[in-house]
Amino acid sequence: MVTKPPQSPKADRREAARAQALKLQQEQLRREKRTRITILASVVAGLIVVGLVAFFILQSQEDDFAGAQSIPADVEQPATANAEGGVTFGVDGVAGTTSGDDAVNVDVYLDYMCPICGQFEDTNQQALDELREAGDITLTVHAISILDRVSQGSAYSTRSAQAFAFIADRAPEQALAFNEALFAQQPTENTAGLTDDQLVSIAESVGVPTDVAAQIPDLTFKQFVQAKTQVALADPDLKNAQGSFGTPTILIDGAPITSNWTVPGNLTAEIQAAKG
């Protein structure tokens, strides 16, 4: 029987040293793994906290106006808005004007992120402009925000609606063109929408003075938009047959339209019938 010669004390020490080094290396790897997991968990928790804080801040702001029957008196409104907070446009297309007592009142509730609102604009904008310029209608635009949830956290519906309100207040001659330009460059749902800089650029492109356009990111009329949105959601006269409110909602002399506006000419015919 062949026996293995015993290792020398020096070889034993080398073997023990290698085993100890391997043990230390494994412990270091475990510590590093635990550290990475801890850091990742902290980052995720931090993001969750930030998201929850933002959600509750937005929710609390909306709750301030939930169920409101009218916009509170202490909320700043555009000077060109009517009693319901809608911005009127008469023959000359300037915000805050009307086409006279004989004109039919056409109210359009819209959200600048709403694709169906974009379809409504594509189908009926030219006809409404012609009717308004002829003095047949006073057009009232109600820009609200019900689709912030589909703009990846950027609150695009609120930002664009308040931008319209701001332009209507500070540059009324360009407000209608700004409204139409927002739909001409409408972003799709589930995107972040247009940036503040892009909104400023669009305002400048329709003739809004640079110093006025530059103030759009200040969100001067954010509370106005939030309050107006809650008033619209609570208004029983704006609810559809299913008992809910959505955009676009179109009224003729205060009553919801009955025609199918997706067919060109139908809305015009209903307006002309109302005019008699």
UniProtKB/TrEMBL annotation:
TM segment ranges: 37-58
Keyword Membrane: yes
Signal peptide: none
Keywords: Membrane, Transmembrane, Transmembrane helix
Coiled coil: none
Cross-referenced Pfam families: Thioredoxin_4
Domain Thioredoxin-like fold per the UniProt entry, residue ranges: 104-260
Name the UniProt record assigns to this protein: Thioredoxin-like fold domain-containing protein
Lineage: Bacteria, Bacillati, Actinomycetota, Actinomycetes, Micrococcales
